[in-house]
Structures are given as structure tokens and as C-alpha cells.
Amino acid sequence: MKKLSTFALIPLCFGLVACSAETMIQSAFPDNRLYEVTSGDGEDSYRFSCAPRESEAATKAQLAKAQRMTDAYLEAAAEAYVEMFLAEEDISFRDAMRINKEADAQAEVFVEAMLEETGCLLVDSE
Questions:
Q1: Alpha-carbon distance 74 to 19, whole Å?
Q2: Report field, pTM of the whole predicted structure over 0.90
Q3: Residue 93 contacts by C-beta under 8 Å, 6 or more apart in sequence?
Q4: What tens digit of pLDDT does each residue of 94-118 get?
């Protein structure tokens, strides 16, 4: 499976007026298709870029798994992020940077797991 490297994608956007994450992902994964699904609670919308599957049923299963993984990750990340900030009595700029770095590392693990397990990347969430 192709590994997404942000640094490898930056030159693709250099000098372009409008360069979105979606554009970068489509450049890195040109065979992928874009899908929009609703979160499990029906309150949010997710846009995924996914590797093509052999049938409509396989695509639906792929998207359902991506949606469940995203729901679980976003809920857990939000809870953990709030807990990290609440655990600090007097939060300094350095503490905030550490917490953000930890959140970024967790997000990277999620993205890699999502790509490995479903062939999908989360492009947008509303």
C-alpha cells in the first residue's frame, strides 16, 4: 500500500493559489474515489478518498468501516484532548505545545490505521 508523505506532497502545491488536502490526496492516490457519508450519530458528514473495490457491496462495507473508525477516533481524541488540558492546573505555552504534539502523533497513527484497514483517507469532516 502506498504511504502518504506530507513532505512529498508539498511540492505539488507549491505556487498554487488553492491547494487543499483533497487536491493533495487525489494527486497522491489518483485511482481513489471520493465518497461522502454521515457519522453514526447523524450529526456530522465525512468525506473519504478510498481505493476502489470490486463491488458495490465491498465499497459499502469499506465506507461503513471507515465511518465507524472515524467516529471512534474523533470521540476518543476529543475526550483525551480535553482530559490532557484539564489535567494541567496552570497550562503554559510549552504544555499546550506538548499536548498538541501528542494529539498530532495520535492522528498520524489513526490515518495510517485507516489507510491500512480500509484503503480510505479522511479528506474532510463537517
A1: 25
A2: no
A3: none
A4: 888 888 888 889 899 999 999 999 9
